[in-house]
Design goal:
82 residues, five-stranded mixed β-sheet, 18% helix, alpha+beta, 28% strand, Ubiquitin-like (UB roll), globular
């Protein structure tokens, strides 16, 4: 479990997602039951969740995994290279 406020989760965005949102980390109120997929829609980021990796408490997880108060949720965009 993370160190977020009671009734909330810690949301972290990385790389291009952080740039798009204008923030990298914040506490987010948790309306239970909520999944990473539902919270992604609340964030209102333009891109779809396709290709974005989800990690809950520093472990990769399905976007349909239920979230609990105190969790740390991270969204990681696809990495390109060459």
């Amino acid at each position: 479990m993370g160190s977020s406020a009671p009734g909330s989760i810690r949301v972290r965005l990385f790389a291009s997602l952080r740039e798009q949102a204008g923030w990298g980390e914040r506490d987010w109120p948790l309306a239970e039951p909520t999944t990473a997929k539902q919270l992604w829609a609340e964030l209102g980021l333009a891109r779809s969740l396709d290709g974005v990796r989800v990690a809950i408490n520093q472990r990769f997880a399905s976007a349909d995994t239920p979230l609990e108060s105190g969790d740390e949720l991270a969204f990681l965009p696809p990495i390109s290279g060459g």
